[in-house]
Every structure is written in C-alpha cells, then in structure tokens.
Amino acid sequence: MGPVECVVLAFPGERLKVAAVTAIAELRRAGQVRLIDSLVVVKSVTGEVSTSELVEYEEYDEATAEIGPEANLLGPEDAAEAAETLEPGSCALMLLVEHVWAARAADAISEAGGRVSGTVRVSPDHVEQARDAYREAVAVAAAGRS
Fold it and tell me: Model confidence over 94-124: pLDDT tens digits?
C-alpha cells in the first residue's frame, strides 16, 4: 500500500463546484490515487457545521460514478477539525486517499532492500518561495559574470 493522506480542500460558498469533484475522479480513473473515503463539510454563515457523503449529491453523479469510498473512516471528529479551518459560509471536501503511484515505487524500493524512513509535507508556498530565491540567485550570479 502507498502512503495514505487526509487532504482537506476548502472552497468559498456552501456548495462544492462540480469541476473540483471531476478532477478528483480523473485522478482515480488514471490510477494515481485510490479514494478510501470522502466527506463534505459545510460551515454555514452562522457557523453551524454539517457533514454529508460526497455521493449524496445528485449534481455530482457523473463525477462520482467511479469515486465511491471503500470505507467510512472519516467521522465527526475529523469533520470538526476540518471545520476549524473554514470561514463561515464555506465548505470543504475531505479526502482520504492512497497515493497509488507511490505504492509502485515503494514496492521497488522494498525489493532493493530499502524502506521509506520518513516523509515531510512541504507546502506549495514554501516551494514557490524556494523557486523565487533560486531564480534570484541565478540572476545575481549571471549579472556578476557579465
């Protein structure tokens, strides 16, 4: 099995956009992720929190046709934690996914006698900051050689 991760995708408004759900379905169809569970968390403008299963929404039927969860592992505690990150009048799609692409690599690493000894999640903001710093350093070095 590949790494399993709980991802919380937050959106403005109290309804998910079909395009977001479709993108997740496409990842699943492509064999990149296995969706273990999903949960929709809504925080009303008054701060009231409600949850539902993704497959309960008829407007997502086409997108969710192949996305049904394999287990109900996300529960009220998970929803409450996700709701803490939401602004009133917004929603989140919680996904418990297995990174299938990594499972294939992990098998090869294991067969070679190796193991994954740790992982660290790096935020996209940090990656962008590092890219900006690198580009700036390259520009300064190039200017110094001229």
Answer: 999 888 888 778 788 889 999 878 777 777 7
